[in-house]
Amino acid sequence: MREKYIILLTCLLYGNLLIGQNWQPISTTAITSYKSSPSTSDSVLIYGVPNFSEIVMKQSIQSLYIDSTINNQYYFNRQQNYHPQTLYNGTLKAKMHFLNEKMIEVSPGLYHFYSPDSFQTGYYTYQNTPDSFVINTLANVNESWIYKLNQPDIATVVAADEEYIFGVLDSIKIITVNTGDSIVLSKNYGIIHFSDAGQSSYQLAGIETAPTQNYGLKMPNTYDVYDFEVGNVFNYISSYNFGGPGGAGNSNVNTVLYRYDIMTKQVTATGFSYSVDYNFIETHNYDSDTVTGSGNTTWVFDYAIGGGTDFTKQAFEFTNSTTNSAIMLGGCGQYQDSSGRQYETYFYRGYFDGFHKSVLSPHLGEIYNYDSQSGLGNSIFSSKKLTGYYIDGVLAGDTIPKAVYNSIHPLQNAELALEITPNPAHDIVQLTITDHVHTNEAIHVQVLNVQGKPLKKQFHTDHDALTVDVSDLPSGVYLLKVEVAHFKAIRKIVVAH
């Protein structure tokens, strides 16, 4: 009987805990980070504060709206990295919808988000029509309400489900609006997805609560610097657009999936050196490069995780900018010298002539380059987005629920059928791919020590002549890694002289 009472008491306490969660759409004591889609929108940090005096005035404040302070009103300070006002006439500015202003809790579960009459960014003042968006967090499936007060749009809860958010099973509600907007609420984390009439959408990337709790990604600021380790792999999608005068005729003419492998690394008190392999998947083009730099470097890893989810560090992508000269595009990192000056490291080279502007997005692995040919009126726009990151052979990525947007998929997602002879070996090793479906794909072969450090690398296009010379390796156990398109095999090999 005593056990039954304990079970009953536990159920009651757990039930009260769930009931006590109020589906509040924004945490009022935390920094909430959102990642944007498509790539022409900015990501943002939302500082939720219960009192204006607690707002931390940081660099690059985009907009701030202040009203009288009472218990049920909350103010949001939106922060984003600086984007030049001259860039494409400011069209890359975030369309933040309702999250960057003021929230009022009208009644339990019913929230109004207010826009200001105007707000100022740099030297510009933007005039808005005051409006109020309404979210009813306690509505059930098929319940509707008026979503936008000044022009009655209808919001409806269309689904309720359970998803793992940051490694914790959570309840979610999916809300759609007749304007094309969509909102996904989490019982634990508030708003985890919202869109703006189908033009832009934002997904929850992370939440930071003082002093030590961090859930998901901690969004980096302009002073964070990064490092890379041997064995790290970065997968990118690169898009390239060309348009005529005034942006007319813009079209995506090239989208390329490619990856970088960090092969070797050396860092000293006076500089650094990386060797990098890069692979353009669609064109089967393998190549390599060496990246060097000088300076008294300080390396920082600035990502934290909570909620029981393993999340590894990822990297920004940077570019340089100049006027009327060739410039280097791409790049996968940044370091900072002892005086605080910022430097870029470049892993991919491309050149534009003319007037060039580059924009660093505040979320991971995405960069926008805008190039205008002076006097011609033509424009070139390219973007590069990090879509996946490997460490120790395991893919890391966003912790966004599958009901909101598709998960990141690894490039190497299947086992390659591979035979090695002889094994043990003392000079030449013959490799045989027994699955001939992949005979048109280029082959990347590496020999690694048991700690995973690459010792040899080869590129092959002939599947019938795959050999590796191990005669110069000391006797011992090694790893042989073979990659073909989306397939990979790792085998142990013994070298015996």
From TrEMBL:
Record-annotated Secretion system C-terminal sorting domain positions: 422-495
InterPro entries in alphabetical order: Secre_tail (IPR026444)
Pfam families: Por_Secre_tail
Protein name: T9SS type A sorting domain-containing protein
Naturally occurring in which organism (per UniProt): Aureispira anguillae
